[in-house]
From TrEMBL:
<dbReference type="InterPro" id="IPR001466">
    <property type="entry name" value="Beta-lactam-related"/>
</dbReference>
<feature type="domain" description="Beta-lactamase-related">
    <location>
        <begin position="15"/>
        <end position="365"/>
    </location>
</feature>
<dbReference type="InterPro" id="IPR012338">
    <property type="entry name" value="Beta-lactam/transpept-like"/>
</dbReference>
<dbReference type="Pfam" id="PF00144">
    <property type="entry name" value="Beta-lactamase"/>
</dbReference>
<protein>
    <submittedName>
        <fullName>Carboxylesterase EstC</fullName>
    </submittedName>
</protein>
<dbReference type="InterPro" id="IPR052907">
    <property type="entry name" value="Beta-lactamase/esterase"/>
</dbReference>
Length: 383
């Protein structure tokens, strides 16, 4: 497979490892970008972007980044905290009165951001088309009772409800749609090719998403799939299948267009690395808010994912001892994987910002081994 782009010769082994991904016939397309100290040392792409053979991945190809989107939304919210328009520890209901229903009057933005609020899913079955109706989804969440008491300190990852919860607060505090807020506050100031709520004119650049077959994944992935398939009433099942269109909509125009800042951001590896470089050099948040974002808020068994997770505010923190939950570099690394393999993160100790994007989805629920191998090798090349 011919790899295109740029790499510093110090990172030639990383380029070779990236090329080796395509020895697996199921890897269709991917891109990799690494910045160190704000300088791009690797910017590579290869493979196929389209559904049909012959539609090559280009320099400007973008892809659905799934949950890599969450930190972008979080940074927009934290900027509003800095401006006094949001408050991490004030009740959400102060800005969103309807949210106080069903015992949620004391839930805070901080609890939403670190997945402690007890709102990773909606109990009542929803029609597939409701996924695209912002009013229906936010009203359902405003009426929902928490799945556990937020006061007990437990946490459960909110794979998609995070987007409506944080997005509604962005909308109310910033006076514009969540994707427009993220674009104005995060993407445009850094010149990032990143979008939440994609314009139809950009659709021709979007990579077609496909799923790899034949790999059951690790034990954590297999456990979650088993519960989701066999126990439809559980929290885990509801989080991923209600509405039932969550898992099979990523190539649909309606999905690309909607403002869902938990899961439907579209961008490239360059935009992920650039975002984390912007956090490391202070262009997005002051030090005190970055420290708040990246300190441990939640740690332990995740009630949604059924595996140990560790979160700051809107970002995943490293768990070096767990194979499925480490970014494979320094213990202070922070960022977020996206469903199927894409990943963006920063390692402050090395001043390294990393972005990996693929349209060939693997089965892992946290870190994909492809991204981990590349990240580990980036650290080794850096020395």
């Amino acid at each position: 497979m011919q790899v295109q782009g740029y790499f510093d010769l110090k990172f030639e082994a990383l380029k070779d490892a990236f090329a080796a991904l395509f020895e697996d016939g199921q890897t269709r397309g991917a891109a990799l970008c690494v910045q160190v100290g704000g300088e791009t040392v690797v910017d590579l792409w290869a493979g196929l972007a389209g559904r049909e053979d012959g539609e090559a991945w280009q320099s400007d190809t973008i892809a659905n980044l799934f949950s890599c989107t969450k930190p972008f939304a979080t940074v927009a919210a934290l900027q509003l905290v800095e401006e006094g328009k949001l408050d991490l520890d004030a009740p959400v209901a102060r800005l969103w009165p309807e949210f106080a229903a069903a015992g949620k009057e004391r839930i805070t933005l901080r609890q939403l951001l670190c997945h402690q609020a007890g709102l990773p899913a909606i109990r009542a079955p929803l029609a597939a088309e409701m996924l695209y109706d912002w009013r229906v989804m936010t009203e359902a969440l405003a009426a929902e009772a928490p799945w556990w008491s937020p006061r007990d300190g437990g946490h459960g990852y909110a794979p998609i409800t995070f987007g409506w919860l944080i997005g509604e607060l962005l909308r109310r505090a910033d006076g514009r749609e969540p994707g427009h807020s993220i674009a104005a506050r995060v993407a445009r100031p850094l010149g990032l090719d990143f979008h939440v709520g994609l314009d139809d004119a950009e659709f021709h650049r979007v990579a077609h998403i496909s799923r790899n077959k034949g790999n059951p994944g690790d034990a954590a992935a297999q456990r979650l799939v088993r519960v989701t398939m066999s126990e439809p009433e559980t929290l885990s099942s509801r989080a991923f299948t209600n509405p039932p269109s969550i898992l099979n909509s990523s190539n649909k125009p309606e999905w690309r267009r909607m403002h869902q800042p938990a899961a439907n951001g579209h961008g490239n590896a360059r935009s992920l690395a650039g975002f984390y470089a912007g956090l490391l050099d202070g262009r997005l948040l002051p030090d005190e808010l970055l420290d708040e974002m990246t300190r441990e808020h939640s740690c332990g068994e995740d009630r949604t994912l059924l595996t140990p997770t560790r979160f700051g505010l809107g970002c995943m923190l490293d768990q070096p001892a767990l194979a499925n939950a480490t970014f494979a570099l320094g213990p202070r690394a922070f960022g977020h994987p996206g469903a199927g393999g894409s990943c963006g993160f920063a390692d402050p100790e090395r001043e390294l910002a990393f972005g990996f994007v693929t349209n060939s989805l693997g089965p892992y629920i946290l870190m994909d081994p492809r991204a981990q191998k590349l990240a580990r090798l980036a650290g080794e090349c850096l020395g």
